[in-house]
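Would you kindly consider the sequence and fold I have copied below?
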Amino acid sequence: MGGRSTASSGQVRADGRVAPPTEIAPNVFEILLRRVRVHLIAEQTLTLIDAGLPGSSGAIDRAIRAIGREPSEIRRVICTHGHFDHAGGAAELAARDGVDVLMHSADLAILPTTLVDVARRPGRRLFVALTPRLDGATPLDDGFELPILGGLRVVHVPGHTPGSICLYAPESGLLFVGDALQARLERVGFASRLYSDDWNMARASVQRMARLDVRMIVFSHYPPRSDDVNGTLRRLAAEAEVAEAGVREGTR
C-alpha cells in the first residue's frame, strides 16, 4: 500500500476510457489500474509485476489485448509485496492454467492474516488481510534471478512489509521498486511512513538500492523516473545512514 497514483499523460482519454498501456522501456508496459500501476513484460511469454486490487483481471486482460497479445500468454505474476492493492488480483490470475504467482517468502508467511486477527491486534497488517489467499504461490528470496529482461534479480528491501522486494534488471538498468520508494510532489523519497510495517527498516533498505547501477526507477503509484536516479538513491542512502546513526546515538 502506498500513496495514490497520479495519472500519467496518455493513459486516460478525454472520453474517460482507459487508453492502451504505455511502453516505458523496450517490451515493458505500464498498465494504470485503480490505485496502482502494474507492469507487463512482453517477451516470448508474458510476466506481470503486481496484479492490482481484487477484481483487476478484466482490466489487465484488456490491456494485454491492446498491445496485440493474449491473456493466455501470462506465465508468471511477481508480487512486490502482499498488500491488497498489489497482490489482491493475483489469486484470480493464479487460478488460470500455467500461471505461477511469486512473492517473497516473508510476505507469503503473513498472507494467512485474517480480519479477525487484525481486530484482535489492530495495525498495518489490515492491508495484507484484505489480500485473497495465494495457495501454491512460489516463494522468492533475495538474489533469486528470473529469466526475463536478460535476468531480473530479486532485491529484498524489508520495511514497508517484511517481504517487500525490488526487481532489478542490470542489462537495462530498470529498478521496479513497488512501494519501497515513493515520489510525492515530484520528489523521490522513502516508503510511506503511514502504510509501512517498520518505517525505520524501510528507510535503511534504500542503502541496498543505492549499490545498484540504475537508469530508471519504476514506481507502483507514480510515473517512472530516469533523471539522475543513481544520485537520488545515493542521497536517500546517505540520509538513511545519518538517521540510523542518530538512532544509535540516542540509544546509548
The first strand starts at residue 22 and ends at 25. The chain has eight helices and 14 strands. Residues 50 and 79 are 5 Å apart (CA to CA). Residues 229-250 form the longest helix (22 residues).
